[in-house]
Write a structure and sequence with these properties.
The complex is a heterodimer.
Chain A (H helix, E strand, L loop, with lengths): L1 H5 L1 H19 L6 H26 L7 H18 L4 H25 L4 H16 L8 E2 L7 H4 L1 E2 L2 E2 H19 L1 H11 L1 H6 L4 H27 L1 E2 L7 H11 L11 H20 L4 H20 L1 H12 L6
Antiparallel strand pairs in A: 1-4, 2-3
Helix pairs in contact in A: 2-13, 3-8, 3-9, 3-11, 3-12, 3-13, 4-5, 4-6, 4-11, 5-6, 5-11, 8-9, 9-11, 12-13, 13-14
Chain B lengths: L7 E10 L2 E11 L3 E7 L5 H8 L7 E6 L2 E3 L4 H6 L2 E4 L11 H5 L6 E2 L2 E2 L1 H14 L15 H14 L4 E5 L7 H16 L3 E5 L3 H7 L2 E6 L2 E4 L8 H9 L16 E10 L6 E6 L3 E5 L6 H8 L5 E8 L2 E3 L4 H7 L1 E4 L3 H5 L6 H6 L14 H14 L16 H14 L4 E5 L7 H16 L3 E5 L3 H7 L2 E6 L2 E6 L6 H10 L7
Parallel strand pairs in B: 3-10, 3-11, 6-9, 9-10, 15-20, 15-21, 18-19, 19-20
Antiparallel strand pairs in B: 1-2, 1-4, 4-5, 7-8, 11-12, 13-14, 13-16, 16-17, 21-22
Helix pairs in contact in B: 14-15
Classes of the chains: A mainly alpha, B alpha/beta.
Chain lengths: ~325, ~500
């Protein structure tokens, strides 16, 4: 019992499985093939954006801008692909590069000009969406391209494509954090920036690159968002940054930096989406859904904070000797 | 003196954490008008014991008596009200408030619902006068020196009419003169009939100050106050058993100059400093806190910019503009503040060891966990670090193991010059000797060591030559045999008289 509470990935995973079992038992259509595919589609964009949020959180920062950045990028994507008639491939590359640039703006402000990342990204949260409204007189651009939807709705062997993106990108993120020096530096900077500097780690560059990667993740999110809705709109992505941060936090990432596992972030994102889906299937109104999500965040973080006490209480309850 | 009813008494206190018994039946009698030393190695249960006395932890067994009757201290404010005052390493002062407000925090004198500022200032001034402290009651606490803040903390205890004052490692951040003043103050408080419990790793201080000492080992009392002899050899023997030579100095100095510092001046308190360090040599740097020792270390390590002068390292002229460059050249810094500047508390031992040389874990920006584990295990064995370092985050390790991990980091980075800033601060005697052996190991393999220390005996015993700093200048370089502790103090303070501020 105490093992379950001490292993970080097992903890988040078992919580999610528990939620899924409860939902499956109480909700009729939850396990339908169609609903599960729908779940995968729903979770894909937020969980990809959440990779970036997790990296920034690991450095001890926060990124509030990806929702707005995505709105801006869907407008840029639609403008390039439809109004200017660029080939889709070129437009996708351009949007990804733009994502990196937006991330670099955040990074330069936060790391080099030393404006706290909360403030920096609060500012760009506002500014990026403002820029999005400058395209097409602030109106959405519909029917971007008939070929674009396959990026989101296509399947391979019956499995939706976005599921492949999520698996591939999380595998990449896991590898990056575990097997690259930069990944290690991200943890080091978030753990103790002074010690990192005195270990010869370029703290500001590390923070800058984390923001750049977060921007790239938002760029991928923007491409999928445009493909999903076959349109760009300055109103897309509202609140997406909060869902992404919630996914990371439910997954156990510490907002103080240096602690957290990226795989847990996708588990956190899935937990949120499963609950939302269950509430939808049971026709619970959106207002009550939002309250529920809030409660889940508090509960998930609380369980993490109280983990030791819970473990000790369980030991007392069952009278088992602790293993050391 | 040790008779009658003790003011405070602990009887068979027990405290367990997740199955580990940190305090296993400790008893302690504290009498009025007595300074009682509490000593023991890291992990012997000192901190846990005092946290029970000041209401932070609740004992799992045993009891606490005040004037002979049992008392329960459910929380710190309760304990304060019952007369327990604690001066921790981290102060409980509010930096943005004034001295007077801090002394009467939570109990500001009132007049018809409003704070009576005049009465507050007068009362605070009276308390400070009582202990002969010349501190302005209107000064903002955050702007005071560490020593002054400590006095404010003690004044706060007096104002609360504490019957016992517990001091946990009060001298770690103090200079020699400040320590002497603190000790004078404590002796005066003793004369006033207060009970004082004094916790310190600096045994020479303890012996100098206390009337009796309880010695802890592994969560139990190894020697009671009645039985303990107040002497360094007795205490060391009781705490750790026979450690052999206290300062196992080996002389490995060669004539080959490793570092030559010529007339270096920085923006930050280092003026016109010149000295050399040879391979295999331990060059000690003494001087009071704030004399520029730490700033000199930072300048050599590329953290503080150098305004004038030259540095030659391994025969080449160098000027580092970042720690990264200094590390690449082969310089290591074990910082004074292990917790704030040294360790990554989110990591277990191995990532802490590899952090300064991630490039050695693989090529093209990749790292190999296997290579990290192999190198980590090797160093953990070589430095006799606890094997738990492999799996446990470093926050769970003792101070001595933490310090060895920081040293291991630089061994892994293959540094040639080790700058050790207060390497034995806050670690127990057994771990100290291990650090001294490490220094011997470094010099034996031809590395140079700069040892910065406030512990004069350590400095004189472990160094081949000692440079004394005062007001940012290197005022003299001596053989340790030409100096003793008093000469060292004189050299570092006497010279300051002639130096313009």
């Amino acid at each position: 019992m105490s093992r379950i509470f001490s292993s970080p990935i097992a903890g988040a995973l078992s919580a999610m499985i528990l939620v899924a079992i409860i939902v499956a038992a109480t909700t009729n259509r939850f396990l339908d093939q169609g609903n599960l595919s729908n779940l995968a589609l729903q979770v894909s964009i937020v969980s990809i954006v959440a990779i970036g949020s997790t990296l920034v959180i690991l450095t001890g920062g926060i990124d509030l801008s990806p929702g707005s950045a995505i709105a801006l990028m869907t407008m840029v994507f639609a403008t390039l692909a439809k109004t200017l008639g660029w080939p889709l491939f070129a437009a996708v590359i351009a949007v990804l590069v733009l994502g990196i640039l937006l991330g670099l703006i955040n990074g330069v402000l936060a790391a080099y000009l030393r404006i706290p990342s909360f403030i920096t990204t609060l500012a760009t949260l506002s500014a990026f969406r403002g820029v999005a409204f400058m395209f097409n007189n602030g109106s959405p651009i519909f029917s971007v391209s008939p070929n674009i939807e396959v990026l989101f709705y296509g399947t391979v062997a019956g499995i939706p494509l976005p599921l492949f993106y999520v698996v591939a990108l999380y595998a990449l993120a896991f590898w990056f954090l575990r097997y690259t020096a930069l990944g290690r530096q991200i943890y080091a900077v978030g753990g103790n920036a002074n010690a990192a500097r005195l270990s010869g780690i370029d703290v500001r560059l590390t923070q800058l690159l984390a923001f750049a990667i977060a921007g790239l993740a938002a760029g991928v999110g923007a491409v999928l968002m445009t493909a999903r809705l076959n349109s760009g709109s300055p109103n897309y992505g509202v609140g997406l940054e909060l869902s992404a941060i919630a996914a990371a936090v439910i997954g156990g990432a510490s907002l103080a930096g240096g602690r957290g596992h990226v795989i847990n972030t996708v588990i956190g994102a899935m937990t949120i989406v499963i609950v939302q889906n269950a509430l939808n299937l049971n026709a619970v109104p959106t207002s009550a859904q939002n309250v529920t999500i809030g409660a889940i965040i508090v509960l998930a973080v609380g369980i993490d904070m109280w983990r030791n006490e819970i473990g000790a209480a369980l030991q007392n309850l069952f009278g088992t000797k602790p293993q050391t | 003196m040790r008779q009658g009813v003790p003011v405070w008494e602990a009887v068979g206190l027990i405290k367990r954490f997740a199955g580990v018994t940190a305090v296993d039946g400790i008893s302690l009698r504290l009498y009025a008008g007595e300074i009682h030393g509490l000593i023991g190695a890291n992990g012997s249960g000192k901190s846990t014991l005092i946290k029970m006395l000041c209401g932070v932890y609740q004992p799992d067994g045993g009891s606490i008596l005040r004037q002979g009757s049992p008392i329960v201290l459910p929380n710190p404010s309760n304990a304060r009200a019952a007369g327990v005052a604690t001066v921790f390493q981290e102060f409980s002062l509010v930096p943005s408030l004034t001295v007077a407000e801090n002394i009467y925090l939570g109990r500001l004198p009132r007049n018809r619902g409003q704070v009576d500022w005049k009465a507050l200032r007068e009362a605070a001034a009276k308390v400070l006068a009582e202990i002969d402290a010349r501190i302005d009651v209107g000064a903002v606490v955050g702007k005071l020196s560490v020593a002054e803040q400590q006095i404010v903390e003690i004044a706060k205890a007096l104002a609360a009419a504490a019957s016992i004052i517990i001091l946990d490692e009060p001298t770690t951040a103090l200079g020699i003169g400040e320590i002497a003043r603190l000790h004078d103050l404590l002796r005066r408080l003793r004369a006033q009939g207060r009970a004082i419990l004094y916790i310190s790793h600096r045994l020479d201080e303890v012996v100098d100050l206390v009337d009796c000492a309880t010695i802890l080992k592994d969560g139990s009392v190894a020697s009671t106050a009645e039985n303990s002899e107040v002497s360094v050899p007795f205490m060391v023997r009781t705490m750790v058993g026979d450690v052999g030579e206290h300062y196992p100095k080996e002389r490995n100095a060669t004539d080959e100059v490793l570092l030559r510092v010529s007339e270096v001046t920085t923006r930050n308190r280092v003026f016109d400093v010149s000295f050399e360090v040879c391979r295999g040599e331990v060059f000690g740097i003494g001087g009071v806190l704030g004399s520029g020792r730490t700033e000199l270390a930072r300048a050599l390590f590329g953290v503080d910019p150098i305004l004038a002068g030259t540095i030659e390292f391994k025969g080449a002229s160098v000027r580092f503009s970042s720690a990264k460059q200094a590390i690449r050249a082969g310089i290591a810094l074990v910082p004074e503040n292990r917790k704030a500047d040294g360790l990554f508390f989110n990591f277990a031992g191995f990532p802490n060891i590899s952090s300064a040389a991630l490039g050695r874990l693989g090529s093209h920006g990749l790292i190999s966990p296997t290579r990290e584990r192999e190198a980590g295990r090797k160093l953990v064995r070589a430095l006799e670090i606890t094997p738990a370092a492999e799996t446990k985050e470093v926050g769970y390790l003792s101070g001595g193991n933490q310090q060895k991990i920081v040293v291991a980091r630089w061994l892994f980075a293959d540094a040639d010059l080790f700058i050790l800033d207060e390497p034995t601060q806050g670690i127990d005697i057994g771990a100290r000797v291990a650090v001294y052996r490490l220094i011997n190991g470094l010099t034996a393999s031809g590395k140079g060591v700069i040892l910065i220390s406030s512990d004069d005996e350590e400095l004189l015993s472990m160094s081949d030559r000692v440079g004394v700093m005062s007001h940012g200048r290197m005022v003299g370089i001596h053989r340790p045999s030409e100096l003793d502790a008093t000469a060292l103090v004189r050299a570092s303070t006497g010279a300051s008289l002639g130096t313009p501020a």
